[in-house]
Amino acid sequence: MIRIYRQLLVAQIQAAAQYRIQAVLWMLFSIIRPVIFLAAWTAVSNAQGGSIGSYTTSDFAAYYIALTIVGHLTTAWNSFEFEFEVRQGRLSPKLLRPLHPLHYAVVENLIWKATTFLPLLVVCALVAATFNVQWHGQWWHLALFVPSIVLAAALAFMIAWVIATATFWLQRINTVNTLFQRVGFMFAGQIAPLALVPTWMQVVSYSLPFAYFLAVPAEILRGGVTLEVGLLYLVGQAVWLGLMIIAYRFAWRAGLREYSAVGA
Amino acid sequence: MARRTPRIQRGGRLVLRYLRMFRAFASTEFQFEMEYRGNFYLSILEMFLVIGTSIAAVLVMFGHTTTINGWTLPQMIVLLGVYYLIQGGVNLVFSPSFERLMEHVRAGTLDFHLLKPVNAQFLVSTRHLRVVRAADLLLGLVVVIVGLFQVGEQVGVGAALLFALSLVFGVMLVYSLLLGLVTLSFWFVRVENLLAIFWAFTEAGRFPVDVYPLWLRVSLSTIVPIGIAVTAPANAIAGRMDWIAVALLGAGTVLAVGIASALWRRGLKSYTGASA
To answer: Is residue B1 part of a domain?
Structure first.
């Protein structure tokens, strides 16, 4: 398996090298929305005398920069691409290969993140300077962030694949995608740090997977949690990741039986 | 003794001719769209979701404050409505048409468009519509009206007129930018990525342009006029735009459209129909 992955990595790096500028451009998508909400919250916080709840203006900046990094590292686009592959008949030849299509996607995903991470950090540094960020974390926040971001990226990736399998039944899943995107927008911590949203929204965020792929790692990276809470969050992430993997295996197997290879 | 028709009349006829053409485009595209009825209704549902969640985001913010940079909640709702109005307008006509234009340039099939006895810029800007996006316009309008009711004060005829004018200018401003970007495809062939960035930046229109730090404001309002396009009409409703400001906006818009059309004509000259 390791040998296979090494080969896939080499192939993907070569493929990605052809589209360097494109990769960097898509990175902008990771940055723009958090910066927009950061700007708005900075205005709100300044209007309220420099802080809201437990968040000072520079805490907002730290949170949204952490969110930018987390959002970037948890990007998964398979739910968008998969529909296209099914419709164009590109899935069928992939199914004939001995390796599950998922593995190609994993490598593709990792390469994109690895190659765009450095430029992302540069832009984040610029934003951080503009918004006067202060980091209040401890060293163990960083140590906790590593497993948290890995779990979050895996969780987001598996959710994308679960959504993708809906293509087998629905053919077009634009609406499913939009639905998930917008619910995520509400509950994953994009519009505000979860501590500042109404209680019923917090309940939804933490009992469904939404908090665990965006807000949780961002709060950990920002240094906004105690060790106990941080560990508890990790458990939540692991549980949801497990559930998603199970859901995916079921959906994939049932979906393949449904698959009619329309475009092939 | 052929009498020449006065210029005004000819001009009027020309406009009528183009309007008729536009109506034909719209009805063809509507028939296309109705082939996929399920998809049509789902798109409308999606828009409800998008607008609903955006309003929710604003409500969460206003749970912690009463103004953002001097904007009250009702004014922000109006702004959000304008944002979707402009997006709806652009996505209804210009962006589907421009998407096809880029395909035509790449495939060399633009020749067929150029051979037709109409203004090519008109044809490539309006030929394809995504009819379902008209629902966005409607929803945006509803949001604006709801916001207006909450503002409570009477909106005078003057303010309404300024609003409508700056809205039209805003859409045309965005149009000229899009035309300019798409025209680049004559030289670079693949410009979808530039458009993708443009769409990413338009997100910023959901808040008044004055909340952004200077570097972002400069890039928003000059490179990507969406900031101006959205904030100006909302300002007009809030009574913060006078006739001079709207006139300036109008002059800027005319200038922008002029530059974009000039660029388009230059681009057309270097079009070779490569793959045709």
So the answer is: no
Q: Which of B46, B67, B218 to mutate to test the interface with A (most CBs of A within 10 A)?
A: B46
Dump pLDDT digits (tens) for A96-132: 888 888 888 899 899 888 888 888 999 899 888 888 8
Question: What one-character DSSP code corresponds to residue A54?
Answer: T
User: A179 and B49: CB-CB below 8 Å?
Assistant: yes
Domain boundaries, given as residue ranges, for chain A: 2-262
Containing structural domain, residue B223: 16-270
Whether B10 is in a domain gets the answer no
pTM of the model: 0.86
Task: Closest CB to B68: pick one of A36, A40, A175.
Answer: A40
Residues near A147 by beta carbon (within 8 Å), at least 6 away in sequence: A234
Domain count, chain B: 1
CB B83 within 8 A of CB B153: no
Q: Which residue has the higher pLDDT, A15 or B220?
A: A15
Q: In chain A, which residues touch B (CB < 8 A)?
A: 21-22, 25-26, 28-29, 32-33, 35-37, 39-44, 47-48, 52-53, 130-131, 172, 174-175, 178-179, 182-183, 185-186, 191-192, 196-198, 201
Q: Tell me: the pLDDT tens digits for A230-259?
A: 999 999 999 999 999 999 999 999 998 888
Q: Is the ipTM above a cut-off of 0.90? A: no
**Chain mean position to CA B2:** 43
Question: Phi and psi for A52 in degrees, rounded to 5?
Answer: -130, 125
CA A26/CA A76 separation, integer angstroms: 12
CB atoms within 10 A of CB B104: 21
- Cβ neighbours of A43 in B, within 8 Å: 68-69, 211
| Interchain CB distance below 8 Å, B42 and A44 | no
Contact A178 B207 (CB under 8 A): no
DSSP character at residue B43: H
Lowest mean pLDDT among A55-69, A77-91, B249-263: A77-91
Residue B87 structure tokens: 């997006």
Does residue B6 sit within a domain?
no
Residue contact B197–A28, C-beta within 8 A: yes
Tokens of residue B232, six digits:
């100006």
Q: Of A83, A160, A181, A179, give the one whose Cα is nearest residue B45.
A: A179
